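Quick board copy: two proteins, each given as sequence then tokens.
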Amino acid sequence: MKLKNSLLNQYLLIVLFAIMILPSSFFIITIVFYSSLPMEEKPNKYQNGTDLEAMWHKEAQSLAGATDVQINEKLQEIRKEYDKASLFWVDELGKTRLKLPEDLSVLDSWSPTETIDFMKKNRGEKADPFTVVALIGADKNEGFMVMQVPRSAMMPTGRLLQDRYSFLIILAVVTILAIFIFISWIFFYKIRKRLLRLRQAMSSPAENGIPDPISVEKKDEIGQLEGSFNEMIHQLESSRHRELEEETLRRQLIANLSHDLRTPLTTIRGHAYSLKKETLSEQGKESLDLIDNKIGYLSQLIENLLSYTLLTAGKYPYDPKRVDIVRLVKTSFAAWYPVFEHLQFEMSIDLPERTFYWEIDSQWLERVLDNFYQNVHRHAKEGKYIGVRADTELEQIMIEDRGSGMSGESAGKGAGIGLSIVSLMLKDMGLEWIAETGETGTIIRIQRKNGGADLS
């Protein structure tokens, strides 16, 4: 089971098999080779040059006083037995009488000098072909005869078989290496295929953003990795389920709190309004104004919490239409004009007659602008300035103040949930806001997102 469940052990077994099969294959081939020698081949009659030379001289002496016909018949008889040899004989006058084979390239007539030169060239152990010259007859004046055997034909039988079958050894080695490479390729191909399947599962999440589990076919290292991957998916699904439950509870809690807090706040505001009709000291009037201001702030905070919950849940009503942006900015700021005038703000309004259009929900954009105006009202009072402009060329809305900046401190600074609502609303409408802020003030720019497609 350990061998089956370990890729390392499996591959080591393949390597061990290849190491063992190579020497054993040589041993088997050697046994087969040598056991087949006596069965396949007879001893090589050409391999002993001494025997050939003795036979040739014996035959030459036996032809003493023989006629030309008898000599020819004898050579033809020898040629049948030694078919790889070349034979010819020359008579006492130096004329070549018979050539076997007939196309043998030799001189037709021989002088003593040519005969001696021929013997010198073909004498020696390394001369090829092996040449034996014997004088015919006992008196040695009846001519001579010649036998020539190629050196390749004189190799021992074992050497011939070795040359003939040596390719079997090479073929065996190549075959074993090829089998080893093929088995290794299959081994790693299957590993790669399983890893690619795991990578595909990781990079192809389902609709919920979590990959689907994969089947575990083996218990080796990759199978353990697949099991860990499935366990991770299970934990992610459990975590996602808990997160959804917590998110649902959180939204429900915020909605319930928002609803439950509205009734007492309305009651408190009503009593505060009634107290304004009573005769109060100056300190009492200031306290009552402070109470009314804080009630308004708390109401706005509750409204923001409820809006944020609906936006994140995708349940905030959205009705996009083609909207005249310059006109909407005029209408939106007109409601805030008395507020800033009462606070003695310097107001710079630059809203041209020419306009541009966005395909958006006008109530959403008004809510965004109200949040920015509210921030100026609460956090940039010391600057006593607000600027509102619309750039029809760049299709931008700009709101400017001279407060301490968004990173600065102010008495009414909260948790920033209003800006979170702004970001969510603008994102859903295909818009974005960019802030240029510092100690001398802030400029807010509202524009199409990343210079994207025209919303009009």
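And the next:
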Amino acid sequence: MPPPTPLVFHFADDGLVPNNRLPLLIYRGAFELADLRDPEAIIERVFRENGWGREMWRNGIYPFTHFHSMIHEALGVARGRARVRFGGEAGATLELIAGDVAVLPAGTGHQALWTSPDLSVIGSYPPGGTYNLCRAGGAEHAAAVKVIPHVPLPTSDPVRGRKGPLTALWRA
């Protein structure tokens, strides 16, 4: 079965969450994880092989609207499910399930509205950029708008590698 083509979402700056001119990418069923003992390790291996192995973590998704203004982020759902709002109040609410991957350009707001008790997410970042955590609104928004355009573009897609859709979609 060929790897999935991502869903593409564009979000405008809403005055609280800057978002990005680059689209959010959602890969539905990027990984077949049923009956695996350690699905987290599978996602981590693929992210690492595709150049997104920087500062990986295993956790959930914060229940408040936040974004990262100085780095892009990949979120791979290893277990469970979550209802996540992307793009701030005027964005889109999507349900993510085990095997899905969300790739967020710097500045893209995200917030878990609901999670299953077994939710396990792998977060990862490409080379270039610096991790930071910003909350929606105020001074953080104003500062973020200035730095987001300078975040380096990744040279590969965390799911599909150097020839993956991200490399074309984020340069179009």
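Board note added afterward: The first strand starts at residue 7 and ends at 11.
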